[in-house]
Specification:
By secondary structure, this protein is mainly α. The chain has 2 domains: 1-42, no CATH class; 46-88. The chain has helices at 24-42, 60-87; strands at residues 46-50, 55-59. It has a two-stranded antiparallel sheet. The radius of gyration is 22 Å and the shape is flat.
């Protein structure tokens, strides 16, 4: 009647198929979300930032988010260039 699922396979490793148990992935996401909320609350004051030419006023967390976004884009561009260089 019931299909037996191997203990090391599927979503069991993440803890999804155990009733009453919270997934470790869910715990990590909750902690990261909580830390993000605390970070934004602590860095809400406005600062003056020079973006190439214009001088703008924005919250510290927005300025840091822009920096992280630029870093991610540069990382992706570098990796794409590196892989293209290795294949040709």
């Amino acid at each position: 009647m019931h299909e037996h699922i191997d203990a090391g396979a599927g979503d069991d490793a993440a803890g999804w198929d155990r009733p009453g148990r919270v997934s470790p992935v869910l715990i990590v996401l909750a902690v990261v979300t909580l830390l993000l909320i605390v970070f934004i609350a602590e860095n809400g004051r406005k600062v003056r930032v020079r973006l190439i030419f214009p001088l703008v006023t924005m919250p510290v967390w927005v300025a840091m988010l822009i920096c992280v976004g630029i870093g991610v884009v540069l990382d992706r561009l570098f990796l794409a260039w590196w892989h293209r260089r290795k294949t040709t």
